[in-house]
Design brief:
The protein is mainly beta and 115 residues long. Strands 2, 4, 5, 6, 9, 10 and 11 form a seven-stranded mixed β-sheet that branches. A hairpin with a 6-residue loop joins strand 5 and strand 6. The radius of gyration is 13 Å and the shape is globular. The termini are far apart.
Length: 115
């Protein structure tokens, strides 16, 4: 199982960013993809999850309205789209999936929000 994420991004405040997570080694539609982020010096924060089978999503309340998760089953790729970026959104963003009772993680995508 592998989750391969897109590269680091630098954005201005108020902009948007889209992070990708390409899955392989298992049936993409069989497991949720979760998104988690870690800001500098902070604990991991669960952002939400998507069911790639039907696109159903659940978001952390504090991010509701600014984050959109999508999944492309033709490429086994999940996306996290974060809009209206703020400096406090600077973090490493991770995707993960539980496959056969084991969690697999992407290596993370650093998103820096700075003017």
């Amino acid at each position: 199982v592998q989750l391969v994420q897109s590269g680091a991004e630098l954005r201005n405040p108020g902009a948007s960013v889209k992070v990708s997570c390409k899955a392989s080694g298992y049936i993409f539609t069989s497991e949720y993809i979760h998104w988690v982020r870690q800001a500098p010096g902070q604990a991991l924060e669960w952002m939400g999850r998507i069911d790639p089978e039907d696109g159903a999503t659940k978001y952390a309340q504090r991010l509701q309205g600014r984050v959109t998760f999508t999944a492309d089953t033709s490429t086994s790729t999940a996306y996290a789209d974060i809009s209206d970026l703020k400096s406090e959104d600077t973090a490493v963003y991770y995707c993960n999936a539980e496959v056969s009772k084991r969690y697999y993680w992407g290596k993370g995508t650093l998103v820096t929000v700075s003017s």
